[in-house]
């Protein structure tokens, strides 16, 4: 008996090794395995940011696209990448598992970067350089050239969606939360996660951007591809050492099943005794029924035809759901108003890697004899984020003496408020740049006699806002979701980033249509940024952000966490165990 107990302690009961046997605690998992998995995310961030932050200048200067079109392409690329995280999560949960999802989609991302490297290297896959001696100075990229470019770009987006959906989850699978030592190691993993991926980002926007601008785009994109392939090789090398979890089915499918069952039974009457609503008595954790969104409770009414085929006692999930599963869906629905009112922030964020980079490209970026690449100005944004997180951790969390500092909803609100200020400052800086343009309209120069470092405030303020926004959103959506839907809730958070970029695209297209310019003048977003009224565009986003802030405050006041046993820790200051992702951003 004692020997059996020792054997059980040596095994991780809810995890398996690569052969499908119970995982040996000493031979699998732990910090080294988690760090190897983290290497994939660092390489992904290095690759993605290294290409994304400098992509708008490539589209402008090499592919000869109008400035608004370039910004739209970059915004769509970022939006699609995060939206595909939903697809990646479904594939991982339902078919491939996290390990194979990461391996396959990381290779796809590497191949996408390789296609971009080929596109940037072969002369017939990009238009000729601009010729100032002819009437039509610049020839836009043709359909073939843009087609190859988009093939590489959106192959990367597909890869990013698959990798991001599973990396952090597989990393946490390497630790047994029932073991105190491993639980501490997992906290260490989360504390370093956000910090390390930002180091990858800083390397991308400094070293990699410099190589792209001063050596070759092809070389820079080739480095990205090689970095991803190297990370995959290292990742695969520890296959025998990872811990794996069995597939449990997609939470998204479970959500659809509840809705379908409720619709099918919409005409049925509730029983007089609501305790007769269906619940799985063998379930380890249950959630008490609530009256909100009562129409969904129809899915729990028993009726003929609910049992499976061939006399099975197991209910057909498309016909009958448990009270707990219905309540899990209700908890997700309560998150939606907060989800909707955080989208506009990522519209603000999109300006940092699109129009703000274009502004910097038109200005003097020299420090002595050194010429700072325009895309490298993103380092001020990333640096501000990291410094803010570090100061918050040291000055607020350390002095709070047991309190968790600002609540998640307060962090989100603060991020939204700061973003309003950021866009107002950006509008003011653009007015200053436009004055210099008007004063030097007759001077033949491609670089304005105005230092680009006046743009630091708008980069830094957005970075400060993101420090609160990202950490608050991530922790809120993870901690407030039901235990069985953490993955889909994390994907829901990522879609706010995606939709933020898509909102930027819609705004750009709308502004181009309604402000075409009068009497031969230019609209707000002209083909060339120096002919635009970007200050008006920034001011509009600031006003929209202010209105959205008011809506968010209403939604935050309305939001009430589930008070059942399963959600007892899901107040605005989420419990320690469920809020570990917040520790990521507080490192």
TrEMBL record:
Keyword Transmembrane part of the UniProt annotation: yes
Span list, region Disordered: 564-587
Signal sequence bounds: none
Keyword terms of this UniProt record: Membrane, Transmembrane, Transmembrane helix
Membrane topology reported for the UniProt record: Multi-pass membrane protein
Spans through the membrane: 73-92, 99-124, 144-163, 193-212, 218-236, 335-358, 370-392, 412-429, 449-470, 491-511, 536-559
InterPro entries named in the record: MFS_trans_sf (IPR036259), POT_fam (IPR000109)
Localization, UniProt: Membrane
Basic and acidic residues compositional bias, start-end: 566-587
UniProt family annotation: Belongs to the major facilitator superfamily. Proton-dependent oligopeptide transporter (POT/PTR) (TC 2.A.17) family.
Stated name of the protein: Protein NRT1/ PTR family 6.2
């Amino acid at each position: 008996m004692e020997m059996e107990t020792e054997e059980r302690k040596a095994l991780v009961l809810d995890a398996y090794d690569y052969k499908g046997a119970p995982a040996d605690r000493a031979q699998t998992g732990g910090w080294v395995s988690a760090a190897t998995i983290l290497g994939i995310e660092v390489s992904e961030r290095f690759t993605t940011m290294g290409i994304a932050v400098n992509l708008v200048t490539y589209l402008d200067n090499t592919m000869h696209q109008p400035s608004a079109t370039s910004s739209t392409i970059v915004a769509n690329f970022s939006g699609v990448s995060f939206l595909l995280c939903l697809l990646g999560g479904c594939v991982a949960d339902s078919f491939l598992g996290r390990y194979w999802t990461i391996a396959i989609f990381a290779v796809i991302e590497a191949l996408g970067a390789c296609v971009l490297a080929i596109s940037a290297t072969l002369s017939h896959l990009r238009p000729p350089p601009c010729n100032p001696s002819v009437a039509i100075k610049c020839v836009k990229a043709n359909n073939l050239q843009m087609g190859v470019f988009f093939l590489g770009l959106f192959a990367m987006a597909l890869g990013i969606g698959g990798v991001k959906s599973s990396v952090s989850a597989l990393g946490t699978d390497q630790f047994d939360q029932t073991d105190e030592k491993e639980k501490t190691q997992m906290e260490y993993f989360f504390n370093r996660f956000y910090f390390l991926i930002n180091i990858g980002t800083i390397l991308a926007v400094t070293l990699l951007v410099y190589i792209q601008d001063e050596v070759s785009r092809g070389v820079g994109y080739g480095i990205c591809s090689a970095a991803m392939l190297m990370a995959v090789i290292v990742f695969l090398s520890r296959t025998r050492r990872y811990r794996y979890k069995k597939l449990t089915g997609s939470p998204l499918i479970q959500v659809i099943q509840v809705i379908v069952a409720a619709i099918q039974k919409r005409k049925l009457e509730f029983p007089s005794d609501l305790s007769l609503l269906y619940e799985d008595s063998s379930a380890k954790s249950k959630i008490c029924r609530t009256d909100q969104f009562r129409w969904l409770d129809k899915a729990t009414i028993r009726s003929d035809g609910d049992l499976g085929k061939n006399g099975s006692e197991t209910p057909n999930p498309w016909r009958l759901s448990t009270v707990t599963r219905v309540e899990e869906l209700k908890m997700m629905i309560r998150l939606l108003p907060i989800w909707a009112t955080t989208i506009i922030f990522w519209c603000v964020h999109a300006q940092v890697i699109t129009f703000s980079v274009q502004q910097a490209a038109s200005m003097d970026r020299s420090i002595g004899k050194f010429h700072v690449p325009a895309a490298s100005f993103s380092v001020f944004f990333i640096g501000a984020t990291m410094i803010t997180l570090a100061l918050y951790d040291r000055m607020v969390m350390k002095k709070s003496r047991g309190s968790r500092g600002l609540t998640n909803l307060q962090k989100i609100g603060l991020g939204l408020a700061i973003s309003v200020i950021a866009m107002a400052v950006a509008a003011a800086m653009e007015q200053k740049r436009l004055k210099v343009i008007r004063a030097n309209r007759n001077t033949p120069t491609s670089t304005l006699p105005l230092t680009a470092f006046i743009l630091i405030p708008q980069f830094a303020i957005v970075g400060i806002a993101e420090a609160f926004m990202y950490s608050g959103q991530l922790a809120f959506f993870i901690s407030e979701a039901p235990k069985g839907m953490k993955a889909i809730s994390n994907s829901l958070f990522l879609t706010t980033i995606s939709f933020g970029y898509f909102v930027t695209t819609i705004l750009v297209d709308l502004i181009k249509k309604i402000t075409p310019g009068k009497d031969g003048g230019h609209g707000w977003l002209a083909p060339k940024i120096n002919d635009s009224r970007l200050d008006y565009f920034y001011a509009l986003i600031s006003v929209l952000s202010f209105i959205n802030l008011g809506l968010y405050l209403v939604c935050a006041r309305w939001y009430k966490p589930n008070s059942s046993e399963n959600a007892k820790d899901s107040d605005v200051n989420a419990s320690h165990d469920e809020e570990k992702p917040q520790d990521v951003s507080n490192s």
